[in-house]
Design a protein that fits this description.
single chain; 3-stranded antiparallel β-sheet; alpha+beta; 9-stranded mixed β-sheet
Length: 353
């Protein structure tokens, strides 16, 4: 029988890398819970496997003793963590990484993220991230949690992101995300022949058999809602637009796979079909990633209350795929979203060289 954990008590290791040790008291909410599970719930930015290793290696002491990961919590235990930081200690170091800045003022920064750029440091990616680049170009972000990052794009997803430049701006943007007033619209290529438009409302959680993947769940998981509509149907491949109502990990990729229309080129949730025209196969091979681009972004400015709306040119590798599918016809993909919008919010372009 699983036990319900209901506590807001959280600790971030990454945000306090300057501390040599961390100490806290485990709340009574975790009585009866395994030690490794309790720690994974409390420490929000480290995996359960890493915490388990730290327990075994003595980097985490419970009541001044080394305990087993499976030992149960009695409540009120004193925890002292001495992180064995090595490369992790460089996670929040400034790095001169080229960033495509679409817009900036004293409160917010809008970025057009390139493919291959990890947003936040983590296992296997402790440097070379968007966060490292932000700290280099905007040193004041050392005073803002997570260098102002309030939402993420997958490593190989391209497109628009907003970053807070002040703590107040971060609080405002997080609140907007929570009440779903931030509008995020994506372009994607998927396999098959989806209906003209639809709403996918299926909860998403981690795959219990592969913790690096997400799946749709009937029970458990977190609410996830994606709206999509067809922009152009090609032979065996469809060009679609998606609007996020929520922002779960891999949401569009998981939802479209669940509907039977996985994203083209997706190395995790897609297929390896090659029964397309040679020009299309070549474009997919050059893409070498999931065909997903965050093309439009809209939010309320934290201090002026003005609605800021941005639109970016779709990434070149996806435009190459579009050209291959359309046999280089003069298709102006950027204008299609103005046709028959129904209840879709129209977001105007903001151009900046």
């Amino acid at each position: 029988m699983s036990l319900s954990i209901n506590t807001e008590f959280k600790i971030s290791i990454a945000e306090n890398l300057d501390l040599e040790t961390f100490d806290f008291t485990i709340p009574n909410d975790y009585i009866g819970i395994r030690t490794d599970i309790a720690l994974a719930e409390i420490i929000s930015d480290l995996s359960r496997s890493k915490l388990t290793n730290w327990l075994k290696e003595g980097h985490i002491l419970i009541n001044q003793k080394i305990v087993k990961p499976k030992d149960k919590i009695s409540g009120g235990e004193q925890v002292v963590i001495t992180p064995p930081f090595s490369e992790e200690s460089q996670a929040f170091s400034p790095e001169n990484i080229k960033l495509n800045i679409v817009y900036e003022d004293d409160q917010v920064i809008v970025i057009n993220k390139a493919a291959g750029l990890v947003v936040h440091p983590g296992a296997g990616n402790w440097s070379g991230t968007l966060l490292n680049g932000l700290l280099y170009h905007y040193p004041e972000l050392t005073n803002v949690p997570r260098a102002g990052i309030v939402h993420r794009l997958d490593k190989d997803t391209t497109g628009l992101m907003v970053v807070a430049r002040t703590l107040n701006a971060q609080i405002s943007l997080v609140q907007q995300l929570q009440v779903r007033s931030v509008s995020r619209i994506y372009r994607a290529f998927v396999e098959g022949y989806p209906f003209k438009e639809g709403i996918i409302n299926k909860k998403i959680g981690r795959d219990p058999h592969n913790r690096t993947k997400m799946i749709t769940l009937e029970h458990g998981g977190r609410e996830a809602i994606t709206r999509y509509r067809v922009l152009k149907q090609f032979d065996k491949i469809c060009y679609i637009e998606c609007k996020l109502e929520t922002g779960r990990t891999h949401q569009i990729r998981v939802h479209m796979k669940d509907k039977g229309f996985p994203l083209i080129g997706d190395p995790v949730y897609g297929t390896k079909k090659i029964n397309y025209q040679p020009e299309v196969v070549d474009a997919i091979e050059q893409l070498a990633r999931q065909a997903l681009h965050a093309i439009k972004l809209s939010f309320i400015h934290p201090t002026t209350n003005e609605v800021l709306s941005f639109k970016t040119r779709m990434a070149d590798d996806m435009r190459n795929l579009l050209a291959a599918l359309s046999f280089n016809e003069q298709l102006d993909a950027e204008d299609w979203d103005d046709e028959d919008d129904n209840n879709w919010e129209i977001i105007y372009a903001y151009d900046k060289d």
